């Protein structure tokens, strides 16, 4: 197991940071009512959690780590639900098309960043564990 490169780890954190920060700055500066801002913020936070959960479930299954089917299904349902909620919200919003596109792409960048950060974190821990295991074999 090889540790992820510093460049990929950095790019993942930057993608997550820029996506979340951009989305939230857009919300802060928007003319939406507070309940609308809360809706979009909650959808983003739910999506980030769901994306990490899906990544973990998929990876656990690939590594033959037990995952209950209900949790696996709920994770996929959750990430898909967040996307549907965002689409429905933006479809019905009284925003310019450019603003709708901004929120959609900031959302997708955030979700990608969350998945990549989770993957890198897990890969880095696995690489350290593999190195420690190899060192023990040499003694």
Automatic annotation (TrEMBL):
TM spans (from-to): 38-58, 70-94, 100-117
Keyword Transmembrane belongs to the record: yes
Listed Pfam families: YiaAB
InterPro entries in alphabetical order: YiaA-like, YiaAB
Keyword field: Membrane, Transmembrane, Transmembrane helix
Keyword Hydrolase: no
All copies of domain YiaAB two helix, residue ranges: 8-60, 71-123
PANTHER family: INNER MEMBRANE PROTEIN YIAA (PTHR37290:SF1), INNER MEMBRANE PROTEIN YIAA-RELATED (PTHR37290)
Stated name of the protein: Inner membrane protein YiaA
Lineage, broadest ranks: Bacteria, Pseudomonadati, Bacteroidota, Chitinophagia, Chitinophagales
